[in-house]
Target: S-methylmethionine:homocysteine methyltransferase
Amino acid sequence: MNPIEHVLKHFPLIILDGAMATELEGRGCNLNDSLWSAGILLENPELIRQVHLDYFAAGADCAITASYQATVEGYAARGLGKDEAIRLIQKSVRVAVQARDEFWELPDNRFNRPKPLVAASVGPYGAFLADGSEYRGDYRLNESELMNFHRLRMKALIDAGADIFACETIPSFTEAKAIVKLLEEFPDTYAWISFSAKDERHISDGTPIAECAQWLDQQRQVAAIGINCSPTHIITPLIQEIRKHTAKPIVVYPNSGEHYDPVTKTWSGASSEKDYGEYAYEWYGHGARLIGGCCRTSPEDIGRIAGWARK
Model:
């Protein structure tokens, strides 16, 4: 069963969670590391569970796991063996499932909302490189090589009990195609494909979002198409472009509005002048049906979405 389709039959919107990594930083974690939030799976998984719980309490209908940068190759560079790496990748799902089930046990948490989903984050190859290339898509791997990179992690995530894949911050149309082809090896599983964007019309590698949406619209296991980890001000025109070329649900979860420098790994500028909940309401009006936040967003931002979505 396509879990997104199932929820949207009964509810008008799926509220996603917000940032994991920058939220962990705000709680005292040092993420200046090539493993990023995946390192906290090793050091303090209980804190990840608490972040998931806080997002559910704020109104999130979906937890995105802390596996964005969790790969066998990345953990191997830290000196961990394959089995230990897979255990940690799967822990990202189990921690989220534990938080979801704990939250859902309380009857008061079930009013006017679906049972939350657990989406297994599949970050791009560029996230493993940790050099900012998830915002460029200029790594030179072919489709087969990209499939080989993603295969082991995707199998581990779905075996651990994730409801759906969140294939996110994908900068390259070639990589999106590789992931979709790889999905055929997991025929009962669905994924959303969410790109990082270069501007109002193109994903990071320069491919028109219209071309991506048109191709993905034909892929059975793609449950939603959209944009994440991109500035708030370009989201509405991107939704409009996507909507012209697909009937699938549109997913958006941009950054807070600040500018990220992937070389120095620092943020600058101010958050968007408009309230995040107001932006989300605008995106909903243009057709987005899965809405949340990415870097520098918080449970408070997700609560602002729930504030109008659940009136």
In short: The CA atoms of residues 171 and 297 lie 21 Å apart. The chain has one domain: 3-309. The domain at 3-309 is CATH 3.20.20.330 (TIM Barrel). DSSP finds 13 helices and ten strands in the chain.
